[in-house]
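This week, think about what follows.
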Amino acid sequence: MALGANRGLAFACIGVVLLLAVTLLAYRTPTPLGIDAAPTAFSAGRARAILKDLVGDAVAHPMGSDADARVRELIVKRLSSLGYSTELQTGLVCNGFGVCGTPTNIIATHGEPAGQDAVMLAAHYDSVPAGPGASDDGAGVANLIEIARILTVRPAPLHPVVLLITDGEEAGLLGAQLFTREHRLAKQVKAAVNMEARGVSGPSLMFETGAANEWLMRLYGKAVSLPITNSLCYVIYKMLPNNTDFTVFKAAGYQGFNLAFIGDAAHYHTPLDDWESSSASTMQHQGDNALESLLALANAPSLTHPAADSMFYDVMAREVMVWPIGWVLPAAVVALLLSLGSAVVLARRGHLSGRQAFYGLLGALVNVLLGGALCLATLVLLRFLGRLPPTGSPPWIAHPLAMHIASAALAVLSTTAIAAWFARRAGVWGFCFGSATLFTVLAVIVAYRFPAADYVLLLAALAAALAALHCALGAIKGRAPSQAAVEYATLFPGLIAFLVLMPLLLLLYSALGSAAWPISTVLLCLIAAFLLPLLANATKPARQRLGMAAAVVTFAGICVTVLLPTYSASWPQRMNIEYWVDADTGAAHWWMQPASLRLPRAMGAALQFESASRERFPGYPLKGFYAQAAALKLPAPELTQISPAAGASPAAGASPPAAHLELLLRSARGAPTAFMVFPASAAVEEAAVATQSVPLRVKLHKLGNGATLLVIRGIPPGGMRFGIDTVQAPLPVQVFDESYGLPGELADGKTLQRLRPQTATSSQDGDVTVVQRTVRLDPAAGR
């Protein structure tokens, strides 16, 4: 009797284990092909040989550096050896975030693009100053060169192919903007495949498409052999403040696909992103996907299609299902109506009361809220104990497996508790009603607001509606609902939901870090609503044993996370060391920015750092630790007022500016980067940067205190000229220039770098030297 009562629960456990195993197998990266692979096949072995040639020296190559020029020469040499004629495109460009620079793009074509619609394959070759960028985006460049070789041995596609290797992506998507704004081929390109990375391993994800994504996704599903993609990730990505070169391509009206991998994000934008850390299997998957999707676009009869959104998702990385967006809301409404209609039938047949329905739905809702609250409380505890990075820091830790398991166990613990509290009031069919209604209502809500993100809820809701309909039809025929009917009504939609959700859960931590745990718990509690009828039907000892096991696993996972270090040598925290000189006062200081906001004891004691953190400069979003430093007499950046020229006429109804200023910025010490901060009271919102033709207007970035920021990457030796309008006179401007590395003559700098723990590394711009000064501009000067 007890065994029969617990049968559904046993089936559920077996089903979850089997689906987890199948999902892990299905979403593995493919075995990389060697250098002896067929000439027409993409070979990670060949691509990795190219990658080693490009970045094997592990030297960073940011835009404008000598190392950047060396990598550029190697790329051109590789393409030339394949028979391609390459073109270098150089020009000054500014983005929408107040950053200007002079990138140099590499462009080659396969086929004759004159007058024809073309497709484009893109990657970027510059790295951040802190690391060699083997995976971001050296792997993309190496894959592009291997694909360029394959194009020479395959039949010519219907449309010509443009190969674009951009510069300045890390500086602010500058190369992509230069190409789309100025290059003669930019108007002919109609679709692009872009290769990116935000990690060094893991499967290749197609996470962003063009506006005509219904056509694009049908094309992608037919062409790609191991597709991993879904429209929920696409919807979430569009909400995040993240950008790649594909952002610029989409703004230019291109269709296409954006591919990236996100595993081992601790190496991203650090010295650890080297050739040894890159993954051959990841490069194979990314290269296969890029080649197959590129050829699909290049052989499409037409590249011009109307904008049409869709809901899409892959099935075990083998097929892509595409739903026209107009189908989503009607399907969700049908699922809701079927579920409610089935509930009415069961109620009229005496199997479900209003009280049971109420408590069943309430229990399913409380389960989601309880699970999420418990996991959030766990995160607060771990952050309080210093085992999670603080808010605003990279949210990954060195040993997350224990919390992965604990967050899943929390969902089971919450569900067993809810079953114990509500089982007597809700009963089996009350819980069946509650789980089906919760999913169908949520599916309708999400379908109305974000239809492309609805596929998990919608598929589970449809499965729940069909299962409920089956039970209702049995009741109409006079059959009393059996235990088998209960098991079918819960296992069918529950396992369908778990199957669809698992691929997302496997990627969630790589994408979001520790924020993935409460999200995972909430999602699993949502799916576990289908377990509630089985738990209500199970024996009390079975429920207690399951709840106790979940509690033990949760407690053990939290304890293990507390006991293990937050960072390790292979998963370090980010920690930059900066030397700052104030040219106005002659004072200097060190500024340390550990991601944990905890200064290592040895480093803090060596130079007597302040115990409290403070801003890098007023308005900067991150904080670090200060210590006094020996002052070097480094040349200060120069901001020269050329003339108080008359400004442009203000718009109707607007207050006229106090003055228009023409300025010249120079770094007397040859620093590659400079930035200027204009006070909020000056209302300097944009600048006009001088070029050989018309000035480039750039909108300045607004800081937290209302001040505005203009950044120049790669300052020309003669300086950069630009104009601003200001309502404040005289105008105080903070001017900074930044060079990579610390002054070699300072022993304290070497000491700090030596004392930086093995569990820490520099990142992004790395260790830098900054010289700052305040320049007071007077519009009346020179009149």
Remarks:
- The chain has 20 helices and 26 strands.
